């Protein structure tokens, strides 16, 4: 390992801390940078203080950090995603504000602006979208397929630990050193040692490598869980649509994440060992990196959006009181998208000098992928047609997606034409396109899922008023922020521009910053909604577990679910088995017998690897060789010691299961069912009257 510095702490010195710049050269740019670092430091101090003041360290360790319960791991993923979302949104606002300042230098330096768009993209893709998708999937999959947990509960915990550890590296980069200026894609030569010898690209490399390992482990876990742990009678064509999208997403994870890991490690070899994989001398080729990255990068889009498609499918069916239209065609379309997503990666560099034939082939493949997506849109609209639609918060997010996503998809078809792409590839038109896909397509889906399944996770509904405010802010903010970018992109404004000289761009940028501020209000409204809901939770409890007249198995158990999920594993006889049981009047049967249930025992291995891998990454970034060796040895020893622990299950006695389940059945049979008009009223205790008129 080579180094530009020396000594016990490698190249770590006083200059690595941003506050040194504020002291030596105070400016608006330094104030912004140090304010961000201060927020991170103060946030950590406040959290530690609150945990200490309220004596929550014990419960946090026992009930959460060492838990292998898939539901708690899913919730922790979502909490982490929302924390990172706050940083990602604020960085986006800072970039829009810089561009709204008009021609001239604005208030940010060019290098700081480059760091912002690098961290913004990296955070929103790898540490907001991925953890949010994984959190929802972790919580739902076993409940939807009638299982007690995921296939590998401890591996699930390790995957979470590695993801959080990698995300924390991006937070550390605010306080110690700086992040990469090479964009979220980290293209060489911008991230090569000759062009960028600082620590920024190293933060990116190791965060991506470690989070990629966690992501791959989780993808394998999801796939095996759905393949092997389905309840009796749940054939593949009886799976909820959401589970089909997770199968497809898991396949994409397993095959698409390794190319990214390889690209990042080869880039590390160039930087640390003076290799030349991606340099123009000694046989290297920068295009090898572009191919490896986008061999991951385009499947990544569908890795994220397919689970959101599954969320929308469940919400459209539930809040239309109808069976999902075109189930078979939706399954086929989902699998087609998964396959075709591996055939279009080259459209991300149409402008880099391929032959016309290659560009044409990949352009046609890109256009073809719009066909199964269109099938999904028409099936969703057919589900809505003549349904008894309820405009609850999850449905409002879904309807907003349906309208906005079509615009983003159509702009993608336009960009599939290499000649058009050549003109607008390096403009804000492209920025508008991929935000038009990812925000309504992924983020709105995850926010819809958050509102839809929150009562199942915590036993009380989220506040409806603040939920509607958040939908309005996110939708209006999105339109004002990104629709102007289509126009200014067609006018020729380059992307990644921290400044510009054409004054005709500024009015569009002013509209964009107004939209960005409204999006910020949307973020805060989500947090206010959570606070108000917790404060008023006694008025909105839904212990019976079915507040929305749900159709799938997760709604057939208490809210929140017990650690073992199902007192008795269900026998599935229909695609919408719970809806069919309600229609027959047998939704809450009394089992003939109960059995002892084994559940995984808590373990600290995920937390230990989270901490050690974080130290390991930091040591690699700052070239502290002795610490790299020490943490590597400790991680290996921790895994070896943990592998010899055979006492990894606890047994819940059948009598305890019977007592709890019969108490819940008594509550379900004594609760008065509410109709659609009282869905958000305090009378809704989680027993919705089946709304079968639309189905008939």
Total strands: the figure is: 2
Mean pLDDT: 93
Fraction of helical residues: 55-70%
| Largest sheet features | 2 strands, antiparallel
> So how many helices?
21
Question: How do the strands line up in the largest sheet?
Answer: 1-2
Give the distance, in angstroms, between the N- and C-terminal Cα atoms.
70 Å
- Low-confidence residue ranges: none
Shape: globular
Q: H/E order of the elements? A: HHHHHHHHHHHHHHHHHHEHHEH
Give a written overview of the molecule.
- The protein is mainly α and 696 residues long.
- Helices cover 65% and strands 1% of the residues.
- A two-stranded antiparallel ribbon has the order 1-2.
- The longest helix has 36 residues, at 110-145.
How are the SSEs ordered, and which strands pair?
Elements: H1 19-24, H2 28-53, H3 57-65, H4 70-100, H5 110-145, H6 153-175, H7 200-228, H8 241-273, H9 286-320, H10 327-340, H11 356-368, H12 370-384, H13 393-415, H14 418-424, H15 428-458, H16 464-490, H17 506-535, H18 577-584, E1 597-600, H19 605-621, H20 625-643, E2 649-652, H21 654-670
Helix pairs in contact: 2-6, 4-5, 4-6, 4-17, 5-6, 5-7, 5-15, 6-7, 6-19, 7-8, 7-19, 8-9, 8-10, 9-12, 9-15, 10-12, 13-15, 13-16, 15-16, 16-17, 19-20
């Amino acid at each position: 390992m080579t180094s530009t510095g020396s000594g016990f702490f490698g190249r770590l010195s006083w200059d690595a801390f941003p506050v040194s710049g504020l002291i030596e050269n105070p400016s608006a740019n330094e104030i912004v940078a140090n304010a961000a670092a201060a927020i991170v430091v103060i946030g950590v101090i406040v959290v530690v203080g609150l945990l200490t003041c309220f004596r929550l360290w014990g419960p946090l360790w026992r009930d959460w950090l060492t838990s292998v319960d898939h539901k708690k791991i899913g919730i922790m993923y979502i909490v982490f995603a929302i924390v990172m979302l706050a940083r990602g949104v604020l960085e986006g606002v800072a970039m829009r504000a810089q561009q709204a300042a008009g021609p001239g230098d604005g208030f940010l330096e060019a290098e700081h602006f480059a760091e912002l768009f690098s961290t913004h993209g990296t955070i929103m893709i790898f540490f907001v979208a991925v953890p949010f998708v994984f959190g929802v999937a972790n919580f739902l999959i076993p409940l939807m397929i009638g299982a007690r947990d995921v296939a590998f509960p401890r591996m699930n915990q390790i995957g979470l630990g590695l993801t959080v550890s990698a995300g924390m590296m991006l937070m550390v980069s605010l306080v110690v050193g700086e992040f990469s200026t090479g964009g979220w894609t980290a293209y060489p030569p911008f991230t090569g040692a000759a062009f960028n010898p600082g620590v920024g690209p190293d933060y990116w490399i190791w965060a991506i490598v470690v989070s990629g390992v966690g992501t791959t482990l989780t993808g394998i876990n999801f796939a095996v869980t759905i393949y092997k742990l389905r309840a009796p009678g749940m054939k593949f064509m009886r799976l909820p649509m959401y589970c089909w999208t997770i199968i497809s997403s898991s396949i994409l994870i397993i095959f698409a994440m390794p190319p990214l890991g390889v690209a990042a490690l080869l880039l590390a070899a160039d930087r640390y060992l003076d290799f030349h994989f991606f340099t123009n001398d000694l046989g290297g080729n920068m295009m090898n990196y572009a191919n490896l990255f986008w061999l991951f990068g385009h499947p990544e889009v569908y890795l994220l959006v397919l689970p959101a498609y599954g969320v929308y499918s469940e919400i459209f069916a539930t809040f239309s009181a109808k069976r999902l239209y075109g189930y078979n065609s939706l399954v086929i379309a989902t699998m087609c998208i998964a396959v075709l997503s591996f055939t279009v990666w080259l459209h991300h560099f149409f402008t880099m000098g391929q032959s016309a034939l290659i560009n044409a082939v990949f352009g046609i493949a890109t256009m073809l992928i719009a066909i199964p997506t269109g099938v999904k849109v028409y099936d969703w609209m057919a589900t809505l047609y003549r349904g008894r639609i309820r405009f609850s918060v999850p449905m409002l997010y879904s309807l907003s997606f349906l309208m906005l996503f079509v615009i983003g998809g159509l702009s993608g078809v336009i960009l599939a034409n290499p000649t058009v792409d050549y003109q607008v590839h390096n403009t804000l038109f492209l920025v508008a396109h991929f935000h038009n896909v990812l925000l309504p397509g992924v983020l709105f889906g995850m926010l819809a899922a958050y509102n839809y399944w929150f009562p199942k996770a915590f036993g009380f509904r989220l506040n409806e008023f603040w939920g509607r405010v958040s939908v309005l802010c996110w939708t209006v903010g999105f339109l004002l922020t990104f629709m102007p970018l289509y126009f200014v992109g067609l006018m020729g404004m380059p992307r990644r521009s921290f400044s510009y000289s054409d004054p005709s761009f500024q009015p569009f940028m002013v509209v964009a910053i107004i939209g960005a501020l409204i999006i910020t209000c949307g973020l805060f409204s989500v947090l206010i909604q959570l606070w108000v809901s917790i404060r008023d939770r006694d008025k909105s409890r839904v212990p019976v577990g079915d507040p929305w007249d749900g159709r799938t198995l997760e709604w057939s158990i208490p809210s929140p679910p017990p650690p073992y999920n199902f007192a008795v594993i269900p026998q599935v006889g229909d695609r919408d088995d719970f809806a069919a049981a309600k229609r027959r009047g047998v939704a809450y049967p009394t089992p003939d017998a109960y059995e002892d249930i084994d559940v995984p025992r808590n373990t600290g291995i995920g937390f230990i690897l989270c901490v050690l891998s974080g130290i390991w990454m930091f040591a690699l970034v700052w070239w502290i060789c002795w610490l790299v060796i020490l943490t590597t040895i400790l991680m290996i020893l921790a895994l070896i010691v943990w592998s010899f622990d055979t006492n990894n299950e606890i047994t819940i006695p059948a009598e305890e299961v019977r007592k709890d389940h019969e108490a819940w059945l008594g509550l379900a049979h004594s609760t008065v069912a509410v109709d659609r008009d009282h869905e958000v009223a305090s009378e809704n205790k989680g027993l919705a009257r089946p709304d079968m008129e639309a189905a008939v």
